[in-house]
Model the fold of this input.
Amino acid sequence: MEKRPFAELGVSQEILKAVHKLGYEEASPIQTAVIPAAMAGRDVVGQSATGSGKTAAFAIPAIEMAKAQVHKVQVLILCPTRELAVQVAEETGKLLLFKRGLHVVPIYGGQSYDRQFRALESGVQIVIGTPGRVMDHMERGTLKLDGLRMVVLDEADRMLDMGFRDDIEHILSRVPPERQLLFFSATMPRAIQDLIGRYSRDPAWVKIESHAHNAPQVDQVYYEVDRRSKLEVLTRLIDINDFRYGLIFCSTKIMVDELDQQLHARGYATDRLHGDLSQMQRTRVMEKFRKRAFEFLVATDVAARGLDVDDLEVVFNFDLPNDAEDYTHRIGRTARAGKSGRAVTFVSGRELYRLQSMVRFANLKIRRETAPSLVQVDEARANLFFEKVRGVIDAGKFERQDRVVDRLLEEGYSSTDICSALIQLLKGGSPPGPPPGPAPASPERKAPAERKAPAKEPAAEDPEPEERSEPEPPPTRRTGREAGMTTLFMNAGRKHLVTTGEIVGKITGVTRLTAEVVGAIDIHQRHSLVDVAEEHAELIARKLSGIRIRGHSLKLSLATTDEKALD
Ligand code: ADP
Ligand code: MG
Done:
């Protein structure tokens, strides 16, 4: 069963305004099927999973048929519990916001009769209640049903389970015969079918299959992230999982452009797709993406709609999609053909409520995780490296270097020392290993000598450099900022083969300042954080920006707190 825009269901302007205000973009399948049938005056039996939007499916036709100028109860909605009655009353209240003169009241056990009398006396048109309390009011004469034109049974199966069968029959047998009857239930046991057979006339049966199993292979997680930290968390997740092929969704074209640029500046191979690009540009981008000419495509929903790529490792919802349908659509692009994939969603602030409503609405299986810290990123990288080395050894894909190794062994070095030293050389910057200790910045790393590195453009699929031409000074781990220092963000990291020595060398060489102006340096996979003397920070950033290191154009700027704060 498909979904349609509310505007195509023949509902009033007031309802359109209300659903818009609620943020509903389209009617859900059950709404698409039920609303027109009920508005045409038919009895309806609706069966669909929890969270599929049944409330609005009956509340909208109820609101549309109720007459505001008639001060009598025209719609009676029965719910199994007071919580549900209140919830349904709330949603109905929101849907009739723009209908002048229409009112709704919940009546349920536990609330004072007094308050309910007054509400009922004031001439409300829609009453929502539990069967027991509704019966009470009918018997006391405080709820008059002579003007009743529609009865709704919400969660009929539960009401029967709770022993309300007699109450329900009692109520149904005492309402005017010309009323419309809407039945909603997640299941259709015999007892419900009996009731339907006895009290409704030629109902329209609507059964919506659950779509919860649409994407069972997709591992879905979400992160609560401050808006300004999204970029940092995104890059950490990419690094930690070593993702190489994925889609990143943003909600607007501007966001797409911005994120594409930011990722690019941090050394990721990205491109973008949105409605402002010409058809030719779009085709080209998609072709390149399919051929994996770059790693991440940043896109809007609209642009990605016709995109037929499979086998994505990951889909990021950098911005929360509008509704559950878009969500399912987006994440369905990963884990095709029986493979498993990942879907990562960021929510910030109030978006959490929207996500929760989508989870309920579409029965999403999504779990919460916390953003990885820098230490975790380092550890994950170390693991990756380990796997890589193991892979090379297992596959025997290396040239033997027995002579060098033997010589070192003969000189008395242990094999672990030799390997550790080699790994150190390979990694250039911070080695994999334990989290940074409290050691102060060591002076050696400030050696200003500019190093000649091989003029090798690092290949995108090969972020770990295979060889280095020269030994490095021992890398220094970031230890927190010294007084008078500020942190610069530099768009080059291990992937670009930069080293601490080289960074210090560039800074002193270009600015003619001494090495004293440089503090702790923290080299990441695709960017680095460089502490420099506050008073020279601006000059250093300006002078170094634009300089090329092995074909990569440097860009430096004052690091935002988010770039530093997430440790
Ligand atoms: P059900 O009664 O079928 O279990 P609800 O009516 O309680 O489902 O709806 C579940 C959630 O989905 C609610 O938070 C509701 O606001 C939301 N919802 C309902 N209709 C739509 C729609 N057309 N688009 C987006 N969200 C919707
Ligand atoms: Mg419901």
The two ends are 47 Å apart (CA to CA). The chain has four domains: 6-207, 218-375, 376-426, 471-565. The CA atoms of residues 93 and 436 lie 56 Å apart.
